[in-house]
Amino acid sequence: MRLSLAENRTRIVTPSNAREVSKSKNRIHLLECAAQAIHKFGYRGTTTANIQQLSGLSRGMINLHFQSKENLLLALAEDLSERYASNWQKVLLDTEVSPADRLLGLFRADLSPEVLNERDVAIWFAFRSEVSAKPEYKKHIDSRDATFRASLIEICSALKDEGGYSQANPVLAANCVIALLEGMWTDFHLHSADFDRGKAEEACVYMVRSFFPDHF
Amino acid sequence: MRLSLAENRTRIVTPSNAREVSKSKNRIHLLECAAQAIHKFGYRGTTTANIQQLSGLSRGMINLHFQSKENLLLALAEDLSERYASNWQKVLLDTEVSPADRLLGLFRADLSPEVLNERDVAIWFAFRSEVSAKPEYKKHIDSRDATFRASLIEICSALKDEGGYSQANPVLAANCVIALLEGMWTDFHLHSADFDRGKAEEACVYMVRSFFPDHF
DNA sequence: CAGATGAATAAACGTATGTTCATTTTGTGA
DNA sequence: TCACAAAATGAACATACGTTTATTCATCTG
């Protein structure tokens, strides 16, 4: 699984000349190597030395581009959460699509290799492991945020109304969807070799079918 | 939330004299301080120096008792997973209780402060963050193991038979329960201040009620 | 093309970290 | 009570780590 860091243009000024192009390339390269290092050596094992070694660049580059290693890691976390957010936003916020299809689309998107891949998930877990010590990390690794949750509740409410499921509870259903997806990610992280995206999706659909039988 | 490390007698020979008592106490004390350090400083921030500082003991003690820092952390992971396992085993393996009550008991047990508390969850996430780099950690932090899963499938099968739910799929239902609980733990880890055990349990019950309406 | 500017390099530095070991303290058994 | 043994101590050590900085290299501008 390849990162699409190169496609992230959010914080990188569009380079206007060759010098800026190479600077920007090196910045992205360092982010990619930091990601690789976390995946390969773990969060504890990630050092400026092995990021530098992976990059093939010189020792000073991390500080030149990011001032400090901590900043490089923060930039990586930001990047990760932005890519994750844009992934679910494409699906959840598209109100042209029916609620049921938005939910199915979310499962697909959330379980797709674009976001659910060994390296990225390793990074999520790396930052999450620090959250009790560094609360400032929270905003970067908690992308299933208020908007995400609100969209899900809205979808579940719509399904309830459409299907006339008198027993349905949109808030609880949304909470279940969020937790279930989180759980699938954990399962992937711990057993990526055996993980079956299809079966994971099947389980998700099974759950929402139980909630909203006529829709799925 | 206090650890019950002192109650763990598995690997600690019952001390027969005062000297062994104090040795055993210090060993446990170091494990507790390592746990505290991970919670307080994060996995990266956990050093022999701050474990030692928290313990009030001398520098050499970690190596005297555990040979290396890595060994101390491994002992902590083992301890954690054993305490977690005994927590669910009490509930899931008690065949005197009805399947439905075993499932409800599991939710209670899995969401109880005995295992779901800030410090212990921080340690789970700490070790999980290293799993892609150190596969040997896997066995310690993946306590929701084959037996756990098999018990759940058995319970779901029994519920299906009892209730005549022709549409029910015990394997998918069990997968959902596992993932849902994992997701709840993640939610707790990221939002322990706002986390409501009652609401988490409610969501769990809501899901299994959807699977097996007549039972819950 | 030459001078100026910014990017990249890698040696050097100070500190932090994990571990060792000679020494001291404490408890045990005769 | 005393010699012995085990446990605990903390100074000392080597290495690893993140960062700084003087220097070199590449590119842009006039």
Automatic annotation (TrEMBL), chains A, B:
Pfam families: TetR_C_6, TetR_N
InterPro entries: BetI_C, DNA-bd_HTH_TetR-type_CS, Homeodomain-like_sf, HTH-type_TetR-like_transc_reg, HTH_TetR, Tet_transcr_reg_TetR-rel_C_sf
Gene3D superfamilies the UniProt entry points to: Tetracycline Repressor, domain 2
Residue ranges of every copy of the HTH tetR-type domain listed in the record: 24-84
Keywords: DNA-binding, Repressor, Transcription, Transcription regulation
Residues in the DNA-binding region annotation: 47-66
The keyword ATP-binding is assigned to this record: no
SUPFAM superfamilies found in the cross-reference section: Homeodomain-like (SSF46689), Tetracyclin repressor-like, C-terminal domain (SSF48498)
Keyword Nucleotidyltransferase: no
Name assigned to this protein: TetR family transcriptional regulator
